[in-house]
Design brief:
Elements lengths: L6 H16 L10 E6 L5 E6 L6 H14 L8 E3 L3 H16 L1
Parallel strand pairs: 1-3
Antiparallel strand pairs: 1-2
């Protein structure tokens, strides 16, 4: 018996899996991580643990990405339309929670 993930997480994982197959020639992403492009105008690439996809705050960002881009992410990874500082703050908090 399997556990059903929310559709956003499942769809994001499918996108990442397909994109990883297509972008083998690009910079590699460690196993258990995904590439995320963040920014409203200038996009910056971050590599984050896949475990972040389960956090409600990160899911809110995925929802914004879905509304703005659908499931077509031309950068080769998830594209999240938020300010870089806000993303860094969120990932710093998630990292601190995982260390505890």
């Amino acid at each position: 018996m399997g556990i059903r993930l929310p559709s956003k997480i499942h769809n994001a994982k499918q996108i990442l899996k397909l994109q990883s197959l297509l972008s083998r020639n690009q910079s590699s992403v460690p196993k258990g991580h995904c590439a995320v492009y963040v920014g409203e105008i200038q996009k910056k690439r971050f590599v984050v643990p896949i475990s972040y996809l389960n956090h409600p705050a990160f899911q809110d960002l995925l929802h914004l990405a879905e509304e703005e881009f659908g499931f077509d992410h031309p950068m080769g990874g998830l594209t999240i339309p938020c300010e870089e500082d806000a993303f860094i703050d969120l990932t710093s908090r998630l990292n601190a929670m995982s260390v505890m």
